[in-house]
Specification:
Rossmann fold; globular; 321 residues; binds pyridoxal-5'-phosphate; 6-stranded mixed beta sheet
């Protein structure tokens, strides 16, 4: 099943060797209120999300002079932060193109990490057009947020780390947007534990990979505001890596509502004391809503913590509804 896919377990092991000393090994906790459910607390990663794994692997795979001239990306925030930090650590320059939908706290965080920010357009696709222009006219090098073999291999190191704490999970629930995380984690986990079910979870509002998998080819969906804003954006009409990998490796894709995401954010806050972003809570949303029944060892990837404080306060305040 995995032969011929763009990223294999060997690529992921090489990524682990390359980035192992730069990334944090994040904790895995049993959920005290949901028997069988474990929480991989990847929101404690450097820059607050797993994206630092893929960005670091991609930057270190480039020649230093290329990183010095500049790397560029379009990103809904977390990849931009990760690339800013990764490029800075390598002594290079990062340019980040963001759409107007990206929350203000995420834009400022990218600037604070030393990247040059360009706000362009109202969609991920428009931000990506600016990236193409910077590559063609300014000689910058694109590090995409998901559709890139080095990025996927970096995200896959999270899968290897899960297996250290839990060698044969019954299922892994992966937040799913462009599919870089799901592709890498699935390639790592399926290689070592073929019986593990890999389940992608997206929000009902604007789930581009779910729509594309259902259509059998990359399709566009309307971008809408959602609590899981890190899961917004398309997968790219010319998708080369993640569509094929998600099609081959995901056993199921589940969609959750805004109310279910909010309830899951409150649940995770109650059991960990931490504020995670909506995208990080979709696995719990799938379980708490009864859409997925957890087996004896079900791992939820809590993917990021970059939530605007006012958003989190509003979600907590809705508790009584
Ligand atoms: C980017 C992101 C995702 C989705 O990752 P993809 O590789 O695009 O599927 C999920 N959660 C968080 C916090 C993210 O930043």
């Amino acid at each position: 099943m995995m032969a011929g896919l763009p990223v294999t377990i060997n690529d992921i092991r090489m990524a682990e060797a390359r980035i192992g000393t730069l990334i944090r090994r994040t904790p895995m906790l049993a959920d005290p209120r949901l028997p069988g459910v474990r929480m991989k607390q990847e929101y404690r990663q450097e820059t607050g999300a797993f994206k630092f794994r893929g960005a670091t692997n991609a930057v270190l795979a480039l020649p230093p002079e290329v990183v010095a001239r500049g790397v560029v990306t379009a990103s809904t925030g977390n990849h931009g932060r990760a690339l800013a930090r990764a490029a800075g650590a390598a002594g290079g320059r990062a340019v980040v193109c963001l759409s107007r939908l990206v929350p203000a706290n995420k834009v400022q965080a990218v600037r604070d990490l030393g990247a040059e920010v360009r706000i362009v357009g109202r969609s991920q696709d428009e931000a990506m057009a600016e990236v193409a222009r910077a590559v063609a006219e300014e000689g910058l090098t694109e590090v995409p947020p998901f559709d890139d073999a080095a990025v996927v291999a970096g995200q896959g190191t999270l899968g290897l780390e899960i297996l250290v704490d839990c060698p044969a999970p019954s299922a892994v629930l992966v937040p799913l947007s462009g599919g870089g995380l799901a592709s890498g984690v699935a390639a790592a986990v399926k290689a070592r534990s073929p019986a593990t079910r890999l389940i992608g979870v997206s929000m009902e509002r604007g789930a581009a990979m779910a729509a594309s998998l259902a259509a059998g080819r990359p399709v566009e969906v309307e971008e809408e505001p959602t609590l899981a804003d890190s899961l917004g954006g398309g997968i790219g009409a010319g998708n080369r890596v993640t569509f094929a990998m998600c099609r081959a490796l995901l056993d199921d894709v589940i969609l959750v509502t805004e109310e279910e995401i909010a309830a899951a954010m409150r649940h995770i806050h109650a059991v960990t004391g931490d504020a995670v972003e909506g995208a990080a809570a979709v696995g719990h949303a799938a379980i708490l809503s009864g859409r997925v029944s957890p087996g004896p060892d079900t791992v939820c990837i809590l993917s990021g913590a970059n939530v605007a404080p006012e958003t989190f306060v509003r979600v907590l305040g809705d508790q009584t509804r």
